[in-house]
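Lab channel / #folding
Pinned by the channel admin:
"Please post every new chain as: sequence first, then the structure tokens as a reply. Keep commentary short and put observations after the output so the thread stays searchable."

First post following the new format, from NK:
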Amino acid sequence: MKKRILSVLSVMIIFAVALSFSGCKKDTDPSSSSSVSSSSSELNSEESSSSSAGDSSSSGAEEKTDTLTFNIGNDMGQNIKALEIKPADDSKWAEIPLDEVWSSGYMIPVTLTSEEIPEDSLWEIKIVFESDDSEKVFSDAEITEGANLILTEEGIVY
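Reply from TO:
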């Protein structure tokens, strides 16, 4: 019973931190350490390359870049040294660079940048623990613009 209460309190604290992030002014400078980004080439799908090949009207213009910004909380009880993400139907992981080890109990903002970000897609999130280099994969994560996801031993809390 006490463990369940502590777990609920931990989740509430992480949500409070997430809410405090939503009230802060976001820094749009990509070199800033306040946001975590993945490179745009890592999340491209085969559909985007095949559909843009047939579209000759935009051959001289720059391709549109989509972004998806959300927050992820670490409530695993362990520090995390690596974070990767990919659409569930894709085989290539995109590394989300961390400035330092991601401590348990903290939430970080993530911005994915790509030529095409799948809509209504489920995602997979992979983490690597600092203590023993073991990995954990969370499948069927629902990530939407502005979402707050908290990674726990039992799964993802939205």
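NK: The helical segments are 2-22, 46-53.
TO: also worth noting, Residues 2-49+61-157 form one domain.
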